[in-house]
Structures are given as C-alpha cells and as structure tokens.
Amino acid sequence: MREEREKGNFESGGAKLDPAGKMIGSMLVINAENEQAAWQWLEKDPYVTGRVWEKIEVLPFKLADV
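^ that's the sequence the OP posted. Answer follows.
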C-alpha cells in the first residue's frame, strides 16, 4: 500500500475488530473516480487476486478535508 499511497490511490486502512478486540475483517479507503474505477483497482489488488478477502463491499465515502 505504500506504493499505492505514493500514486495517490490509497488513503487509509486497517483491521475491523469485534467488541473483544479480535480481528473480524479489514477495510481500505481508496481514491477512485467512481465505483467502476474502484472495482477496476480492486481487480488488481493482491488480497483480491490471492483470494484473501471472501467478501468485498464498495461504498461511497467522502474524506474530510482537514
């Protein structure tokens, strides 16, 4: 993701935790023009091509400009 950050594609990401603090998934915030562009980016992601992620959900998100 360091390389993707340098390209301006990756904003943030990390582990999703249950109430006990156990990892139950992960999430990424990426820069993409639209949903189609996000899916095209995801098709090349190593976690997708390596079948690490079982479920993928793409949601619109507006990053706060602070």
